[in-house]
Amino acid sequence: MDLVGACRAFVHVSDRGSFTLGAAAARIPQPVASRRVAALERHLGGRLFDRSTRRAVLTPFGREVLPAARRLILLAEDLEYDAERARHSPVRLALPEVCGTRDLAALGAAGRDAGLRLDFRRVPPAARADALRDRDVHAAVLAVPPDGAAWTVPLGVGAAARPGVRAVYLETLRVGRGQRPSTGRRLWIQPEDDVPHVRDPLLRLRDALGLGPAQIAVAPSLADAATEVLVSSDLLLCPAGQAEALGLYWCELGDPVLVRGYDLVAESTEESERLRDALADALAHCLDAAPSGVAAPGPRRTD
Predict the structure, then answer these.
(1) Structurally, what CATH architecture does the domain formed by 3-87 represent?
(2) For residue range 221-250, what is the model confidence (pLDDT) as tens digits?
(3) How far is CA 218 from CA 116, 158, 199, in A?
(4) Where does the HTH lysR-type domain start and stop, copy by copy (predicted)?
């Protein structure tokens, strides 16, 4: 039985003293109102109206249960209102700081097409994981190892001058005899790549090659890293699209081969899958990536 619908019919009939007028107020046919009231009487185990008069007069039992019926209707209306508001409330989504404004607008439009309002928060990798854990956001695009990623982004190096080679190897950063390591060229890691599966292989190779500690450096921001590269012979670890946006020449990194990996994680597995499916293509474009199951595009050479 539709308990809320039956209570609505009961309340409208009692307020107007007529099944005909009450049905009209409830926007249902009069026979439907009569059936719903009869079903409610059977459910509650007592007569609600005195059928011996021409008007719909409440019985003592009906007068007793009428206030509760009103409260049930108000609670049902509150539930419907809250559900509607929840459906249209923004989904707070933590994203990499490298996502550009234009790409975010396209991502927001893709969300609207899927019935989602997205509220973007651009934060570094560790902060995205923290925000999701602390429930400051509903979902986050997290940095993950590429073998478990929904999106992957090949990394190379960007430079202010044309590299003149197909691939850059870290061993070329070695300083000559008599030079101090502090004077050597540096490879800058931007905050987005300050994650173990990207940073640690570089640091291990740095130590194996005998490079100076400062020759593989994590920059406080992308802007700081790009500035150092633009005014020197230093290199920036980045994907091809980002190098192009910064006005840098890009080429492959010969060793180690590094790839950004991303996954979209929400508060539940079901919500993660829903958002991932709805935003897959737009988010891949935003990250300069390819969705899982789609081959990542080869590095775009700008040398």
Answers:
(1) Orthogonal Bundle (1.10)
(2) 999 999 999 999 999 999 999 999 999 999
(3) 36, 15, 9
(4) 1-59
